[in-house]
Design brief:
The protein has 454 residues and is of the alpha/beta class. The chain has three domains: 180 residues, Rossmann fold; 129 residues, Rossmann fold (3-Layer(aba) Sandwich), CATH 3.40.50.980; 93 residues, ANL, C-terminal domain (GMP Synthetase, Chain A, domain 3, 2-Layer Sandwich). It is built from eleven helices and 20 strands.
């Protein structure tokens, strides 16, 4: 499949219209959620012929996917095997402790490889690169970790997994920070691929260990918001270890979208495959499409999917869009324009998207806790660029109990896949001073950040 990146916008839209009609026909035959949604709304899907007609369809929200993920997977037994066979199941955060599965067929996996080839071309990833996958090894297969290999395959590059993250289960496979640093040095990695705050922490440790990471030429960062100061500090660390002109490739996307690509640092994000997905900026109250340059909710429609298929899916970010040709590289597909502001109630801690309500329910169920408070902050109060930390402050009913700390850590990790630090305090510290007596259950003390890319 050839890239559509240089085609005139009118030709791109013709391709999208044709793809859309076929995608909607597949959903009408074998997509339980959209069959029900369109039937209840009295929609004749054959009336939707172009991308402009999409405005006539209802929006799909994350909660819809959370409640019935299996209903979003196409069930069409007459399709060829490669369009039916489930190649992989990735997970995204759900409304309970269990994450939500997203199904990809062999057809979808090949489509993602194609998309990744274009991302590599736009961002400058080469066949000669050696990629260090620095994403954590989590309890469910999250897109960032799993897709790192596919991105390397698509670019023809080499890759190794460093396997950081909190340990779980009986198998000793996770590696410490020092072990990760040593592996990067040993393999002469040229690209560090991971969560920006973790990469910065790793580089600071590498400086302390006086290792040679001069081979690194690029950091491909994603998974959490970043500020210019944090990105500049990553560059500073790399330069101090001999990297001549380190590049920060800030990836934007999600498990549902895949990745968008910057053709230059701090630039807009190109849609690498407009033949695979169509994007709108909409008013959430009306579902109406907003013009280029006006900020609103990002909505995606899959144009060529066979597993989990999404039509007018609200991604949850506030951005704007630009359909003009890029003045820097000349590519013609649309670009997402920041700053990106997340609207979901879900939050990110150490690159992991979590639902605070799940953790609140867990803490309320543990005997012996009189009151508690969840604090999200930087690990080092004197370093606003340090990694995120989750601190759970608890007041106990019957004094100090050495076992409750371990129970809180275990249950929190089981519920949200993040390991907190636990602090035992007096109950008065959790309540506001003055006339208010309500406990402050959740506090986010992280420094201001200017973008939120995942």
């Amino acid at each position: 499949m050839e890239s559509t990146q240089q085609l005139p916008l009118g030709e791109i839209e013709q391709i999208q219209n044709k793809k859309l009609r076929h995608m909607l026909s597949l959903c009408a035959r074998g997509h339980k959620f959209y069959q029900n949604q369109w039937n209840e709304a009295g929609i004749n899907i054959e009336d939707i012929q172009t991308i402009d007609d999409l405005e006539r369809l209802p929006l799909t929200h994350k909660q819809d996917l959370m409640e019935s993920p299996d209903d979003f997977c196409l069930k069409l037994p007459d399709l060829p095997l490669h369009e039916r066979a489930i190649w992989e199941v990735l997970y995204t955060t759900g409304s309970t402790a269990d994450p939500v599965p997203l199904f990809n067929t062999t057809y979808d996996y090949h489509a993602y490889l194609h998309q990744s080839q274009v991302v590599a071309d736009i961002s400058g990833i080469k066949e000669s690169d050696i990629i260090a996958n620095l994403f954590p090894l989590t309890q469910a297969p999250m897109g960032a970790f799993v897709r790192s290999a596919g991105n390397a395959y698509a670019a023809g590059a080499m890759i190794f997994a460093a396997l950081p993250g909190g340990a779980f289960g009986p198998f000793d496979v996770h590696r410490s920070l020092d072990q990760v640093v040593a592996r990067i040095e040993k393999h002469r990695a040229t690209i560090l691929w991971g969560i920006p705050s973790y990469i910065r922490r790793l580089l600071i440790r590498a400086l302390e260990l006086t290792v040679d990471l001069s081979s690194v030429r690029m950091c491909a960062i994603t998974g959490e918001a970043t500020s210019p100061a944090l990105r500049d500090d990553i560059r500073r660390c790399l330069r101090e270890m001999g990297a001549a002109r380190p590049v920060i490739f800030n990836r934007y996307g999600s498990t549902e979208l895949g990745a968008f690509a910057q053709c230059r640092e701090e630039g807009d994000w190109h849609n690498p495959a407009p033949e695979l997905q169509y994007h709108e900026i909409v008013d959430l109250d009306t579902g109406k499409r907003l013009p280029d340059g006006e900020r609103g909710a990002l909505v995606v429609t899959h144009l060529d999917k066979r597993g989990t298929a999404l039509i007018r899916f609200v991604v949850g970010d506030i951005v704007s869009i630009d359909h003009s040709s890029c003045q820097h590289c000349g590519r013609t597909s649309e670009r997402i324009v920041g700053p990106v502001v997340r609207t979901k109630d879900l939050i990110k801690v150490k690159g992991m998207l979590i639902n605070p309500d799940v953790l609140l329910d867990v803490l309320q169920s543990i005997p012996g806790i009189a009151e508690f408070q969840i604090v999200i902050q930087q690990e080092d109060n004197n370093d606003p660029l340090s990694m995120d930390e989750m601190l759970i402050r608890v007041a106990l009913q019957n004094g100090f109990d050495v076992t409750i700390r371990e129970e809180i850590v275990a249950q929190a990790n089981r519920a949200i896949n993040v390991t907190p630090r636990v602090e035992i305090i007096n109950i008065e510290e959790i309540y506001k001073t003055g006339a208010q007596t309500k406990a402050v259950r959740f506090i986010d003390r992280r420094a201001h950040i200017d973008s939120a890319v995942r």
